[in-house]
Specification:
Layout (H helix, E strand, L loop, with lengths): L2 H8 L2 E5 L2 E8 L6 E5 L13 H4 L4 E5 L17 H14 L4 E7 L2 H13 L10 E8 L12 H6 L4 H7 L2 H9 L4 H7 L1 H16 L7 H4 L1 H19 L4 E6 L7 H10 L5 E4 L6 H4 L1 H12 L1
Helix pairs in contact: 3-4, 4-11, 7-9
Keywords: Hydrolase
Organism: Litoribrevibacter albus
GO cellular component, one term: membrane
């Protein structure tokens, strides 16, 4: 594991959820507004390293590796679902004494956030006193089932041959798959050594506890979206929680065309696109993301 990842891990800790160890970082004073960052597939809390130093100056910043990702446990027979990931988020916040919080979410992390929105819309269904969600800053997610645009590799991973795809997966295939979701501009700005180091770090995190052999289980959110997508869409449409949505124009999954359709569907019209950016705005254009987030919160 490279020095950058080792440093990230050394600045975090673990909490236990139903016998599983979940990694998280918690930086900043409890007196500051709390922001929790929820990553997407197939990455981890390390995703936020570009915007972390600046945000932690102003907020109590919390990020976790969702179950099955990063430094957290990756049980072979674990119960992987968006609902379980939302349970873990709430359990972590409660264990840290957080009463109210903001969310930054990316990729399938937006589905976890929509699950949290739905729970906030129906507090009478809650089994305990959950922390209160103040706002949602969402990036690069489908939001509505009809906007779902999974890539071929993701479709294969949830098919009957998914376990075989996981077994045959290697770093070369992983790098090629990840590079397809970055914009050409981002790849040139990151430079060849920079993008290689980034991809190698993602691969190292995936290798922990043989996570690369469990990719077919970690695409659980695609099936969850088929079952719960309409409910999550209603939560997005009906919530009183302020929402801002951001997408990269060059994102092959949720870029220009899908973004235009989202404008027609969404009651929330605080929608922004960043030109020459792909699926990872917080990696490809961190300063733009910081600008949009700070303006949204203030």
């Amino acid at each position: 594991m490279n020095a950058q990842l080792q440093q990230w891990k050394s600045q975090g800790q673990f909490f236990e959820y139903l016998g599983y160890k979940v990694f998280y970082r918690d930086d900043g004073s409890a007196e500051k507004p709390c922001v929790i960052c929820i990553h997407g597939f197939p990455t981890s809390s390390w995703d936020w390293h570009h915007i972390w130093p600046e945000l932690s100056k102003h907020y109590r910043l919390i990020a976790l590796d969702q179950l099955g990702f990063g430094f957290s446990d990756k049980p072979k027979q674990g119960e992987y679902s968006v609902m379980v990931q939302a349970d873990i988020v709430e359990a972590l916040l409660q264990s840290l004494g957080v009463v109210e919080y903001h969310v930054i979410a990316h990729d399938f992390g937006t589905l976890v956030a929509q699950e949290l929105l739905d729970r906030g819309n129906h507090p009478e269904q809650a089994t305990g006193k959950a922390p209160y969600l103040l706002s949602l800053f969402a990036m690069s997610g489908s939001i509505f089932p009809e906007l779902s645009n999974p890539r071929l590799i993701q479709k294969l991973l949830i098919s009957r041959v998914g376990f075989l795809i996981s077994l045959m997966f290697n770093q070369k295939k992983f790098d090629r798959s990840m590079l397809r979701v970055f914009s050409q501009t981002s790849k040139s700005q990151l430079t060849e050594p920079g993008i290689r180091q980034l991809l190698n770090s993602y691969w190292q995190l995936l290798l922990l506890q043989n996570g690369n052999k469990q990719l077919h289980q970690l695409n659980f959110f695609l099936k969850d979206r088929q079952m719960h997508g309409e409910r999550w869409a209603r939560a997005w449409q009906e919530t009183d929680v302020p929402i801002r949505y951001v997408v990269g124009e060059a994102d092959p999954m949720y870029g220009h065309d899908v973004f235009q359709r989202l404008k027609d569907l969404s009651n929330t019209q605080d929608l922004h696109s960043i030109s020459d950016v792909g699926h990872f705005p917080h990696i490809e254009s961190p300063q733009q993301v910081l600008k949009l987030f700070n303006a949204f919160i203030s």
